[in-house]
Write a structure and sequence with these properties.
The structure holds 2 protein chains of 2 kinds. By secondary structure, chain A is an alpha+beta fold. Helices cover 32% and strands 32% of the residues of chain A. A 6-stranded mixed beta sheet of chain A has the order 2-3-4-1-5-6, with helices on one face. In chain A, α1 packs parallel to α2. The two termini of chain A are 22 Å apart. In chain B, α4 runs parallel beside α5, α5 packs antiparallel against α12 and α6 packs parallel to α8. The longest helix of chain B has 20 residues. Classes of the chains: A alpha+beta, B alpha/beta. At the A-B interface, β1, β2, β3 and β4 of A face β7, β8, β9 and β10 of B.
Chain lengths: 131, 380
């Protein structure tokens, strides 16, 4: 299992990749993001959701104006809305052995779609990338 | 062989009746006997209805009541325009015919409730088209019912259609939603949260199988200038809460032909205490990359720039995308739904998505429009 600093690195890599592709104009104006993640020992569910929202903030360029929340202590989903009209669904669930290390990401832009495909060994492969 | 069931089609080309009629026509248990619609509809709609009647070599009848009086009519396949759909559905239920209904049931929850009440009063068998008979949705339902993920925590459902020439609206403007939309029928666009949102919302309610409490929603104009022009959303997203903390989230809309290698994201993620499983319409699949030329979206058909209808898709020469080749493709979805409906009629069983269950998505959609307009969570 990756430690918390490895995970922070991994999530930052994902966020960088999303922003890079948006900045390169690959999908037009970013409009909607779906973030499904899992959390494990050492992180709270609120921290897990906050991480997803921080990535959204980077992609959409500001903080959301409205957040709606549902779920309980094991699972939370947040629907967030930005003043530009962009929106996102950020969900987190307690991790267990049947869940592959998250997150899954789908980002819709005005002219295209971007999916982050983690693969079964996602985080371990990413941490081996020499940057 | 038992008597073939006679099908009256209400509505014609450039409605979902194109798919309904093809499904009934291909099943040996049913045959199309007439096409009809209300008296006084506009000339364009009447001409398109006439063309469907010509296609199947059956008479066209002006007037729903007159058509319902035909002794050979057993089933009504009902695809009247959304704005008058509930009125026609009530008349059909009153006539005691089996009802195969376009989705959603009506323009809003109150009108849908009228339809459901009349169907309940007359006791006719009814079914609204939905995705509950697709292989990936059935697999998700089996997963929930098996209990292998433990207590259900959430379902996340994304149903988007990769159709139409996207990328024509690059503005960063928030949509101002109407809390009670009344206009749905346009040539160049439609309300996608209404028309496509019924799929993921219907699946969510079916999978969770309890009464939803609240909904929070956002609608947007993300992809198409045609939708902006007609003040119709091209996308919507919602968070629905249920008892015991269960949540459903949906993302839905028309995202543009080039935004997906197949027909658009169609996937369900089931989250339970013991794990998470995903069910995707395009999985398992063969992925192909080669020197073969990729299909391109041709010039839009002037009567259907968004590629909504089978006849205009064919007329425009819209090709089938070839890079994703799922083992079970989407060409059977309509036919399988109609087979299931005819099975229910012939065996005397209740359709899964009968009018009573189909009321649920209409209630959620109406509350979601209010939420998108007010910026507040709304009770369902």
């Amino acid at each position: 299992m990756p430690n918390s600093s490895e995970r922070v690195t991994y999530l930052a890599q994902i966020a960088d990749a999303l922003v890079q592709h948006v900045d390169d104009g690959r999908i037009g104006v970013p409009r909607w993001l779906r973030w499904l993640d899992s959390f494990e020992d050492g992180r709270t569910i609120d921290e897990c959701v906050a991480t997803g929202l921080e990535v959204c903030n980077r992609v959409f360029g500001s903080k959301p104006t409205t957040e709606y929340r549902g779920g309980d202590g094991i699972h939370i989903s947040v629907l967030a809305n930005w003043d530009t009209g962009a929106s996102a669904l950020v969900s987190a669930v307690a991790r267990n052995p049947l869940v592959t290390e998250g997150p899954e990401v789908m980002l819709l832009g005005s002219s295209g779609m971007l999916n982050f495909i983690r693969g079964d060994s996602g985080i371990y492969t990413a941490l081996s990338v020499d940057r | 062989m038992t008597k073939q069931l006679g099908v009256l089609c209400i509505g014609g080309l450039q409605t979902h009746q194109e798919n309904h009629a093809a499904g009934f026509h291909s099943d040996p248990r049913s045959r199309i006997v007439a096409v009809a619609d209300e008296i006084g509809i506009n000339e364009r709609r009447r001409n398109l209805n006439l063309k469907l009647a010509e296609q199947y070599g059956v008479p066209y009848i002006d007037g729903v009541e007159k058509a319902l009086d035909l002794p050979e009519v057993d089933i009504v396949s009902m695809c009247a325009d959304v704005e008058r759909r509930h009125r026609v559905a009530v008349a059909c239920a009153r006539a005691g015919k089996y009802l195969y209904l376009d989705k959603p049931l009506a323009a809003n929850a109150d009108s849908a409730d009228e339809v459901v009440s009349e169907i309940a009063r007359t006791g006719v068998v009814s079914q609204m088209y939905s995705f509950v008979h697709t292989p990936w949705a059935k697999a998700a339902k089996q997963c929930v019912e098996s209990g292998r993920l433990g207590r259900l925590l959430a379902v996340h459902v994304d149903i988007m259609f990769a159709k139409g020439p996207g990328g024509t609206n690059g503005s960063k403007t928030a949509r101002r939603e109407n809390p009670e939309p009344t206009k749905f029928t346009f040539i160049e666009s439609k309300r996608e949260f209404f028309d496509l949102g019924v799929y993921p919302i219907g699946l969510s309610l079916w999978l969770v199988d309890s009464e939803p409490i609240n909904v929070s929603a956002v609608t947007g104009n993300y992809f198409f200038e045609q939708h902006v022009r007609n003040d119709t959303e091209d996308f919507g997203t919602a968070l629905i809460t249920f008892p015991a903390g269960v949540v459903a989230t949906v993302g839905t809309g028309r995202i543009g032909w080039d935004s997906h290698p197949a027909g658009g994201p169609h996937r369900i993620t089931v989250v339970g205490e013991l794990g998470t499983e995903r069910f995707d319409a395009w999985e398992p699949r063969v992925e192909i990359s080669s020197t073969a030329e990729s299909p391109k979206l041709p010039s839009p058909h002037p009567e259907d720039p968004m590629g909504m209808w089978r006849s205009t898709q064919q007329a425009a020469g819209i090709p089938k995308k070839a890079n994703f080749s799922p083992l079970a493709d989407e060409t059977r979805w309509y036919a399988d739904d109609i087979v299931a409906f005819l099975d229910c009629i012939t065996t005397g069983t209740e359709p899964i998505m009968d009018a009573r269950r189909a009321l649920g998505p209409s209630k959620v959609i109406s509350a979601a429009y209010r939420s998108a307009a007010t910026g507040k969570t709304e009770a369902i």
